[in-house]
What we know:
Elements: H1 11-14, E1 39-45, E2 64-68, H2 69-72, E3 84-89, E4 92-105, E5 113-115, H3 117-120, E6 128-136, H4 141-144, H5 153-157, E7 175-181, E8 199-203, H6 204-207, E9 220-225, E10 231-240, E11 250-252, H7 254-257, E12 268-274
Parallel strand pairs: 1-5, 2-4, 7-11, 8-10
Antiparallel strand pairs: 1-6, 2-5, 3-4, 3-6, 7-12, 8-11, 9-10, 9-12
Amino acid sequence: MARFTALFLMGASLMGVMSAPASSSSSSSKGMAKLNTQYKGYATTFDDKRSACPGIKYSFSEPVAAVNTALFGNKKGTNVCGKYVKVSLRNKPSKTYTYRVVDICHGCDKNSIDLSKVGMRKFSKKSIEAINWKLVNSSDKSSQKPKPKPTKTAVVAKPTKTSSKPSISHTSKVYHGRGTWFSDTTGSCGVRFSQSDMIAALNQDQMGAYSGSRSRCGDKIRVKAKGSSASVIVRVVDTCPSRYCKHGALDLSRAAFQKFAPMSKGVLELEWSFV
């Protein structure tokens, strides 16, 4: 994996190489997804309630979804709360799954959505997947789950307990380390991304596996730089090798790094936690 860790002396030579921003049908936080319009993005999982749809009660044992801020709509007016998203894997577009929209995803990229872990397990064991999806007014229950077979009722019920398998816990523990920036557009998690996205490469020591329940791929991190009151949420899409990033260190995308300082600064002191 070719990496260009941004150190102070290397920053100037890399500043001119900016990737084009990811495309989106809306650049406004007050925009709203159009009904029956297909969007291409990524599905990740969430287990924290943002309360953007106060009239909707839900549980993470349900297959529910949260839509990114660019396509959610106005929190105090017209929005996607209570509607449904019909989702298919980008490499298997013929099979679809439908989820009720119950919240907003602040950390999602443009055109991407969050699914409850129960919802994600309907089509993948990974923590991030490339998907197609569209907004619809009502659910299609036939696509949510296979038709039940009476002779296998007990067998079908058992897989729902897979959530009890060991996984990396998301705690509020705060980590400290060096923050640099990098220039890749494809990482160890196997997905393409843009340097205009709010993303990061996690140090190898804390990354874990690259797939499965022990992977940090797709996890979200809240980051704050020393001396700055601002914080940003980034998504883990890559690994920073231990020779560049010690325990606690993060490699940030250019867009994320510039939330705190110009790229010429090269190195930041960060504090961060998983969310």
